[in-house]
Structure formats: structure tokens, C-alpha cells
Amino acid sequence: MNHSNWSAYMYDMHEYMRQQEALIEQLTSRVNELEEKLQNKKSNHIEKVEYHFDQLKIEQLDGTLHIGLSPQDLANLDGSFIDQPKPPNYQAPLKQTIQAELNDYLHRNGTNIINQMAAEYNVSMDDGYPPILIQDMIKQLPGRIAFYENEAYNEKNLQTRDDIHRFISDNVKNEIKQSLRKYMDTQRSKGE
Predict the structure, then answer these.
(1) Which residues lie in coiled coils (predicted)?
(2) Among the residues of 77-128, which ranges form H helices?
């Protein structure tokens, strides 16, 4: 190696080492800064917890849920609160099952029931009118099912899922027939 190449090589090495030292200083400074931030932020701070109840799926609920009570508060509760009768245990899709069955019931039997009642009350019924009545009744099913579900909770003798199912279904079917009778009676009065 000649003298000029050796000088250039040493100069390049010196520059490279200075760049590396500057980079090491930068990284050391950044690590120190991060460690300092970590020391200052010892406690975990949770910004926001979002909970969506529609994501909650409960398969079975046994026992009593006391919201906002500590274990010490539970010891002080009077016995009448704890010993309340439990609502019957049933599976979550009961409403959907009943609604599907009642939809099917109305689609299969609704036209016949309407036509029989129209004949019984001597009310002339256009062929396009029963489907309109049926659709109107189907729209009201969720509210009526919810109403009779609440009633089922108040009945002491309804313990099984089948009992509750039968109670809700029978009451909604009876209400459908009573409503149609009242409707036909009103239509007959208008026609006279």
C-alpha cells in the first residue's frame, strides 16, 4: 500500500467511527429518555374501557348478582332479599323460537282463521286483506311475546322452559283470535 491510499483509508475509518459514535450517543440518549418516562409512569393508567352488553352471552345464570356490593356489604343484607324465588331457568333463544313458531302459525293458519271469522260474523273480506292483517299481527309479535314472558315470570307454577314456552305461545294465539273477533265485530257494525 502506498502512502496516499493509507492516509485516505485512515481518514475514512476515522469518519466512519465518528458517525458510529454519534449514532451511539443518539441511541443512548433515547434509551435514557424512555427509561425516565417509564419510571415516571409506574402506575398503569387505563384511558377508557368500553363494554358492549350485546357482546355478552350468558348460557346459564344461577345465583344472585349483586351489583356494586362488596363482600362486607353482602354479609349485612337481610335474608328476604337473598331468599327471593329465582326466575325459571331457560335457554336464551326462547323468544326467537316462539316468534318463529308464531310466524309459521300465522302464515299457515292465518288466512283460514280470518276467513272463518269473517264468515262467522258475516263480514265480506277482500282476498288481499288477510295477508295485510297477517303482516300487521307478525309486526306485533315481539312486543306481545315480551309481555307474556314477563307474565310468565310472575306465574309461580311455571318452572320449566316448556311450561313458559307453552304459556307464552298459547296466550299470544288466544290474543290473536280475540283481536280478530273484536276486529270482525267492529267491521260488522260498520257494515250494518
Answers:
(1) 17-44
(2) 79-82, 94-120
